[in-house]
């Protein structure tokens, strides 16, 4: 873990949950369920479990404090828009948090007190000690108890993430391909005609392709497993013979012409493997949302 700066409390535990590819943080198995009194206003209900307006406003206030610390003028148009968007993200995060909390019970996933205390002491130490850590909490308008709960939430989220993605192998059949991507069919047909006339695929990729990440490499996108590329591209890359060039393939990004260079079973790169894990987890979380009854009471 990197050294935690003065804004560590929120940057690591709160703001990262709004921006990162992994889903939300959740409370661990055994965390008492908040039951609102008849007078308490609700921000949301998730399968009958309440998220109170008080808890929502507390987390929203932490984001607001972070924005202020970073120098954002919340009275400006930009500041007002960013804060409004962040408040909606906070609510969705809290909903996801509750969904994962509920799922953790069924998965048998929990966080022990010793795990929590060890992680907490690591963060305090990397903050520069208790005094610096306390200053960080104060700057973020966060109490020690709230931070401890957010860390507990994060640890459980990571544990559930690990459980959901445990079956994904780091080894898979992968295709090594080049492609030329253009935004119009006419342009694609022009490229296709030149390929049929015998011109070099890599040279045409450098001349035509609008995929700036692979254009200078002659359209070479490297090795990739299933589940990474657009479905239309994937179907062709894993279905055609090695060494051949496809026809024009349309996807949401435009029109592709694909050349498969090789295909074999191999270890995925760290980046591709983590991308697959994240996709799997987000698909699982989306299923939790779709199969749940969620009522939102925040505009």
Summarize this, please?
The protein has 10 helices and 7 strands.
CATH third-level topology of the largest domain: Triger factor/SurA peptide-binding fold
Helix content: 40-55%
Q: The biggest beta sheet, please?
A: 4 strands, antiparallel
- What is the number of helices? 10
The CATH superfamily of the largest domain appears as: Porin chaperone SurA, peptide-binding domain
Radius of gyration (CA) equals 24 Å
Tally the structural domains.
Answer: 2
* Range of strand content: 15-25%
Strands ordered across the widest β-sheet: 4-3-6-5
User: How far apart are the termini?
Assistant: 37 Å
**What form results from the Cα inertia axes?**
elongated
CATH architecture of the largest domain: Orthogonal Bundle
Secondary structure category = alpha+beta
The SSE order reads HEEHHHHHEHHEHEEHE
Arithmetic mean pLDDT = 86
Low-confidence residue ranges: 1-33
How many E strands? 7
Which CATH class of the largest domain is shown? Mainly Alpha
Structure description:
It contains ten helices and seven strands. By secondary structure, the chain is α+β, with helices and mostly antiparallel strands. It has two domains: 8-167 and 280-296, Orthogonal Bundle (Triger factor/SurA peptide-binding fold), CATH 1.10.4030.10; 172-266, Chitinase A, domain 3. Helix 1 packs across helix 2 and helix 3 packs across helix 6 (144-164). The model is unreliable at 1-33 (pLDDT under 50).
